[in-house]
Structure formats: structure tokens, C-alpha cells
């Protein structure tokens, strides 16, 4: 297999090269504060089509357009007055807003919907790339469809490397969970995906929001698919007191803090020894990938408290635990 093409995201020449690739209709994986994205020129339908091919992503699953600031966002979406405050408060940052789309957005980006997802990422390399490219960058997470999102350049290289023109390596993503998705369409506030911006922070700004993270029928956002963000290894969420021993299986443990009985497990991944939820979120996908690489019989995940980022962590673990 051909090796992946990786360059340092702190090298300005590499950013220039990446921007040229985007302008010429190629694909660049780039770091954001949440997870790595697989980017193409949002206004080039052929380039965007390659994203779907490389990820084996169904065409019914729309993409997020990444822009450098609120002004540029207005080129692609029609923002209601209520968006001004949200954009000022949360951008750049891990919040995606869904609004009515402008005709400049090709329908392949929005999967034929008349709404569009837009965000301003808070990562210097992502912002530098968008500015140098001079266009919005459509980008899903840079992983095969349905798998755990990548939080390191190496994760991208391992799974999609040879199919991508360039991977910008910006180190570990500091937030480690995908953006929270808030829809402003139809004059309502609806949360479509829990993520890097805690729900409580959004509620404190807009008041009540409708929770639409679990869709019935055709999901509005595949983040709403019951099974998503999944390891190949079976994962179960089990409280310590509910675990039955011996299981006779090679079990990996994913735990917020050090367990009392680490030797009972074939492998243990600790998310944050001090129970810091930011640290836990940042470590979650790396830990899941690590455990998934060990050919274990199953992974047991201890539940975390559902508050702040703990909500998004539990959301990802639950979706990972659903088997077809
Ligand atoms: O943090 C993130 O959001 C990362 C980084 C790369 O920015 N991106 C990401 O993209 O997670 P992706 O494609 O893996 O997830 C985007 C989600 C999907 O569940 C998609 O269905 C939803 O956004 N989405 C996009 N456009 C939408 C729309 N018009 N209406 C509803 N959901 C939409
Ligand atoms: Mg994704």
C-alpha cells in the first residue's frame, strides 16, 4: 500500500501546499480543535464527491462547511438575527449551526437538504488553511463512515492515508469530541448532536432547547444514528458493581479513573486520573482506538456522570455499544 503523505501543520509552506490542493479539487485532512477533518473545496461538487467515496459515506449524510469567520459563513447560510450572539459567543469553537442554505452551496454538500451546517473551527492550522484556500472547506471527520473519529494525524494515516492528497499533522486534537450541532432552522433551537460545546453553555445563552439527538425514521444527522462512532470490538457500558466475574473472556476496560482491580483486565485505558472531564473527552477516541486494536473479546466502559462534556462522552459510548 502506498504511504500517506503527511506534513507538519505548523509549516507555513505545507499550509500553502494544502491550500493549493484544496483549490485544485483535492482532499486534505487537517486538524481542528475537535477531531481531524477530511476537507475539500465546499463549492466544488466533484471534490466533495471524493470525500464520500474515500469515507464510504452514504450520500444522504450532509457535510459541515468550515469557514474562517462569521462574515464568511454568511456566504453559505442565511443566519437569523438570533445567530449573531451565538456566533460571537461560541465561534471559533466546537459548535456547528444549521441554517437555511444559500444557493452557492452545491446540493451534494447538504445531501439535498435546504439547510446547511457551518462552523468556525478554533484551531490555528484549520483557520490558516481555510484563509489560504480562500473558500469554505466541506469536511466530515476523517474516518471511515461509522468508525471512531480521528484525534491524531496517525489515526487518519492508518485508515485513509493513501486516498488523501495530504494530511496536515497538528498533533493531538485538544477537545477530542466532535462539535455540538445546534439547528436554528424553522425558528427553533434544536440540538442534533451533543459534542464539544457543553449543552449547559448553550442553554445558558438561548434558554430552552429542544433535544433531537435521537431521531426516529430517517435521521436528520447521522450523529443521530443509533449505532455510530463504533469500535469493531463489542463494547458494553457496565457499572463496577454490576460486573460479573469471571467472564472467561479477554476484556479491556475503559474507565475514567484507576480501577480497584486492574489485573482482572487484559488492558486498561484511563481517561483522566483526576476525573477532569476535558481531559477525559480529549482521551476518549484515542483510548477506544487503542483498545480496539488489541483483538479483545470485548470492551467494558464505565459510565461517567452526565453533566457538561460527560453527556457527549456517554452519547458516544452508547452509540458505540449498539450492535446491529
Ligand atoms: O467537530 C466536528 O464537527 C468535525 C470537525 C471535522 O469539524 N466534523 C464532523 O463532521 O464531525 P461529520 O460529517 O462527521 O458530522 C457532521 C454531522 C453529521 O451527523 C451530519 O449528518 C450533520 O452533521 N449535518 C450536516 N449538515 C446537516 C444538516 N443540514 N442538517 C442536519 N444535520 C446535518
Ligand atoms: Mg463523523
Account of the protein in words:
The chain is about 30% helix and about 20% strand. The mean pLDDT is about 95. The chain folds into two domains: about 210 residues, DHBP synthase; about 90 residues, Threonylcarbamoyl-AMP synthase, C-terminal domain (Rossmann fold, 3-Layer(aba) Sandwich), CATH 3.40.50. Strands 1, 2, 3, 4, 5, 6, 7, 8, 9, 10, 11 and 12 form a twelve-stranded mixed beta sheet that branches. Strands 13-16-14-15 form a four-stranded parallel beta sheet. Helix 9 runs parallel beside helix 10. It is built from ten helices and 16 strands. It starts with 5 loop residues before the first strand and ends with a helix. It is an alpha/beta fold and about 325 residues long. Strand 10 and strand 11 form a beta hairpin.
> Looking at the structure, what is the overall shape?
globular
Termini gap? 31 Å
CATH class of the largest domain: Alpha Beta
Q: Order of SSEs, N→C?
A: EHEEHEHEHEHEHEHEEEHEEEEHEH
* Structure classification: alpha/beta
The number of domains: 2
Bound molecules: threonylcarbamoyladenylate, magnesium ion
| Whole-number mean pLDDT | 94
In the CATH hierarchy, what is the superfamily of the largest domain?
DHBP synthase
* Rg value: 19 Å
Features of the shown structure:
324 residues, alpha/beta, DHBP synthase, Rossmann fold, twelve-stranded mixed β-sheet, 10 helices, binds threonylcarbamoyladenylate, binds magnesium ion
